[in-house]
Amino acid sequence: EADAEIIACCVEMLRECGLTEKDVKIGINSRRALEEFFSSLSVSADQYATAYRILDALDKKPVTESVFDAMNAGLNPDLVHAFTFGKHMKSGLIEIEGVNRDQFSNAHDRLLTITMAHLEQLTGDLRSTGCDAWCEQNWRIVRGLAYYTGTVFEV
Fold it and tell me: Are 122 and 12 in contact (CB under 8 A)?
């Protein structure tokens, strides 16, 4: 409930500046959801920092390079697949040799299911404050996640 109240304060400030949900989106993520997802891919707690670093770099390098970074770090490449599925499958850009497209879907679906379970209460609270239209799930918000234990958001 406190997270929704803080987000509602941000939305109110944005409204007072003359902005609308069409101008600004508030990206929401959950550290607990990411850690549960990491665990489902057999990523150990001591590998979380590496996993966060790889995910944080997804927009800065080709997907294939991120997949190789994950594999070189001993991480399941589905870690990268799940975070790139929606963005790249729509445009058909993912063509990684030896990877079954079903793997992308399964990992992405698992990430979606875990995250939605973690953010269910927050989503309801945002709906009740009228702020839900301003918000969107953004799995790539990982910068600084080490400072958080639960919900994290960026405006």
Answer: no
Looking at residue 99, its pLDDT comes to: 41
**Could you tell me the two tokens for 18?**
């003359």
The pair of structure tokens assigned to 72 is 């070189």
**Coil, strand or helix at 136:** strand
What count of other Cβ atoms lies within 10 Å of the Cβ of residue 69? 19
pTM for the complete prediction? 0.70
Q: Which residues contact 52 (CB under 8 A, 6 or more apart)?
A: 34, 142, 145, 146
Place of tokens 């927009």: 59
Per the prediction, the chain carries an average pLDDT of 78
Q: How far apart are CA 27 and CA 45, in angstroms?
A: 25
- 146: which strand partners? none
**How many whole angstroms separate alpha carbon 29 and alpha carbon 39?**
17
- Per mean pLDDT, which range of 20-24, 75-79, 91-95 is the poorest? 91-95
Q: What is the pLDDT of residue 105?
A: 57
76 contacts 70 by C-beta, under 8 angstroms: yes
Quickly count: other Cβ atoms within 10 Å of residue 110's Cβ: 16
